[in-house]
Amino acid sequence: MKVLIVGSGGREHAIAWSVAQSKRVDKIYCAPGNGGISQYAECVNIAAMEFDKLADFAQEHAIDLTIIGMDDPLVGGIVDVFEERGLRVFGPRKNAAIIEGSKSFSKDLMKKYGIPTCHYETFHSPEEALLYLENVTYPVVLKADGLALGKGVLICNTAEEAEAGIASLMLDKQFGTAGDTVVIEDFMTGREVSVLCYCDGTHIKPMTSAQDHKRAEDGDKGLNTGGMGTFSPSPFYTEDIQKFCEEKIYQPTMDAMKAEGRDFVGILFVGLMLTKDGPKVLEYNARFGDPEAQVVLPRMKNDIIDVMEACIDGRLDQIDLQFENNAAVCVVLASDGYPKSYEKGKLITGLENFEGKDGYYVFHAGTKLTDEGIVTNGGRVLGVTAKGSNLKEARANAYKATEWISFENKYMRHDIGKAIDEVNE
């Protein structure tokens, strides 16, 4: 098979690595790709939002399967464009990707179909939002309705913070039109867990659990980011909790989307909060999480092509989804200053240290291949992932492996997976 992957981050590198393990695939392309993906795939200089150019490429090169990694093209309708041309593509159509593209849509869906989530209200004007904020209990959560690179969520502890947040999202347009509508939610407390699920429109199969670390600084301080590291599985996601989620959240979400005429085929990311009143949905995404994919995919035993094709063909129920009985931890190496301002073009050394080391991976997020070598080209530069027989060992291995890589202004959190220690104590 010939496979095309659309995207350029750590998630797409993890997908490319997984596809490269398939005995069914002999050629991989990635558009636009990055410096690390080029070791598995031929990178193609077409941007992820150039739908017609991507579809032209897929037709001209007789691509057997295109995998859409990113949220923007999915929400923009790239799957519809490919399907209209008779091309085989993995990901939800535009009318299903709205589950990530609009926070208000997903919250209304949960309310309508009785899927556990927190109380919320939706606002289309800053005046209405500010009026509502006069009578809430703090903290509250503000969410830009549209896509905001995983950063459009503000936790506000005071009225002043909330007012500033509304101004930032709705007046200053920090995230552009994503802030035209804002959802204000009650603040939930508990453990966060991410569960990625394969979906074929009718059936849904959850993968192993993971937990992301969104804040930029140690101790969950600092600004929200696209993710500073992950671990898998979550020790807090017990068999009982999984059973509850399968019965009350995962399958009901699939059934709700089908009832709305929005059959969901692809990856459904369910962000959960394990509250004292039981698991509740924080958010949905319509694709693999990044960096969650970097700890989940290396633990998957199945051929990813087999699973994705079963989703497209509506026969996911025939797949026995299996994961290794071990653990994985990913530590993101970022450019100092992320998620605000940071420098690019810093030479990365030490990548060769991962060659031939089983259970150690380095997934490229913001890198670029130049004549001098691979250089930094983004805020999140690399995801260093390591496996271990348990979470404690995987964490120690991952942090050891971060020392193998050097670049100027290298920055990382030092407490990824610290919650693991609390369980072990």
TrEMBL record:
Enzyme Commission no: 6.3.4.13
Pfam families the record matches: GARS_A, GARS_C, GARS_N
Keyword list, A-Z: ATP-binding, Ligase, Nucleotide-binding, Purine biosynthesis
Superkingdom of source: Bacteria
Biological or metabolic pathway of the protein: Purine metabolism; IMP biosynthesis via de novo pathway; N(1)-(5-phospho-D-ribosyl)glycinamide from 5-phospho-alpha-D-ribose 1-diphosphate: step 2/2
Recorded catalytic activity of this chain's protein: 5-phospho-beta-D-ribosylamine + glycine + ATP = N(1)-(5-phospho-beta-D-ribosyl)glycinamide + ADP + phosphate + H(+)
NCBIfam families given in the database record: purD
Name under which the protein is recorded: Phosphoribosylamine--glycine ligase
Species of provenance: Jutongia hominis
